[in-house]
Structure formats: structure tokens, C-alpha cells
Amino acid sequence: LLATDGRRVYVAHDQAVDALSASNGRPEWSRALPSEATQPLRAGGLLYTGGPILNAATGTVASSATAYPGHQLPAGGHLYTATDTTLSSFAP
Q1: Is 10 in contact with 3 (CB distance < 8 Å)?
Q2: Confidence class of residue 7 from pLDDT cuts 50, 70 and 90?
Q3: Which residues contact 29 (CB under 8 A, 6 or more apart)?
Q4: Which helix H or strand E contains 3, and what residues bound it?
Q5: Collapsing DSSP states into helix, strand and coil, what is residue 48?
Q6: Tens digits of per-residue pLDDT, 17-73?
Q7: pLDDT of residue 78
Q8: CB atoms closer than 10 angstroms to residue 46
Q9: N or C terminus of the chain: which is more exposed, having fewer CB within 10 Å?
Q10: Residues 6 or more apart from 6 whose CB is under 8 A from it?
Q11: Greatest CA separation for the chain
Q12: What pLDDT was estimated at residue 65?
């Protein structure tokens, strides 16, 4: 599971996500996740992992996994999440 923002390539696997330099492939940071990673998505300086929402540059936790569980999709100023049969929308 991969995502990129041109500066970094984000690799999600098992219960972790790694950020590699897009220019040379060197590791920049790695973060263990509390559950299986979903397709990572990079938007607005953040990295959405299906668990905690991370700062894309540093890998620090910007929002906990319990706040927005499931597959996450930011769009139009909202964050949409999907879990099994539930679709939720969050606004700032």
C-alpha cells in the first residue's frame, strides 16, 4: 500500500507505516499503528492511515485512531470514514 506527495513515499504494511525519501529512498520515519494499516492517503499536510492521522513530514500523531476509525477520505473540507456498514462525515 503506497502513497506519495513528491517528497516522500509512504509505505503501509501490517501495523506500521514508513516514510521514505522520494529522491533517494532513505527512511525518514516509521510509525507503529494500533491496528492493520489501510491504503495511506496524503492530504493537507497529513497522512491518513485508517488508524491515527499522522503529520506527513514527521510521522507524529495528529489525531488518535479512535477519533476517526476505518477507511478515511478527506474531501471538500470534510473527513469521511467508512467502517463495515457505516459512513460518517466530520467537519472542522
Answers
A1: yes
A2: very high
A3: 18, 19, 58, 59
A4: strand 2-4
A5: strand
A6: 999 999 999 999 999 999 888 899 998 899 999 889 999 999 999 987 667 777 888
A7: 87
A8: 18
A9: C
A10: 22
A11: 41
A12: 65
Task: Measure the CA–CA gap between 44 and 50, rounded to whole angstroms.
Answer: 16
Q: Measured between alpha carbons, how far is 91 from 53 in angstroms, rounded to an integer?
A: 15
For 12, the enclosing helix (H) or strand (E) is: strand 8-13
Locate 87 and state its grid cell: 459512513
- What would the grid cell of residue 88 be? 460518517
With cell 491515527, the residue in question is 52
Amino acid, single-letter form, for residue 34: P
Q: Indicate the length of the chain as a whole number.
A: 92
